Amino acid sequence: MLKGISPLLSPELLQTLCAMGHGDTIVLADANFPASARARRLLRLPGLAADAVLDAVLALLPIDTFIGDPVRTMQVVGDPAAVPEAVRAFTTVLARHAGPAPVGIDRFSFYAQAEQAYAIVQTGETRLYGNILLTKGVIEAPRA
Asked: Which of 64, 79, 106, 118 is flagged as catalytic?
């Protein structure tokens, strides 16, 4: 255990977040996501809700401010305007961390972007559409 670090963040996830560079992406995926077939690097956090993992990750990970749509979720197939419960929970967490609202993209675009992600973290999330893609930003040095 470390002071100030959420116990939800495994040593592997901490190393992954640290190793990611500006512009790299990470996916927090639900339990139904085809992560094994799509991941370059796969980490598993079974039994954990995706929004709880998002909250822990956002305490450490800066979100990119240089690109449009640095936070993306998967749209509901057949009803792209729908906002699933999991996405509402993500939006609440993002707001708490002063992050941007997520932008929904279609299922196959989400899959394609997930395949290019630095890593996929498969959570135990059972709510449908509990998938979010984050683009890492930078931490600026304090100004003297």
From this structure: 64
pLDDT digits (tens, 9 = 90+) for 4-51: 999 999 999 999 999 999 999 999 999 999 999 999 999 999 999 999
- Domains, in order of start, for the chain: 33-135 (3.40.1650.10)
Catalytic annotation present for 111? yes
Look at the alpha carbons of 116, 121, 126, 131 in this order and tell me if their dihedral is positive or negative: negative
Catalytic residue flag (residue 22): yes
Helices (H), the chain: 11-19, 35-38, 50-58, 85-96, 107-116
Quick: pLDDT tens for 75-100.
999 999 999 999 999 999 999 999 99
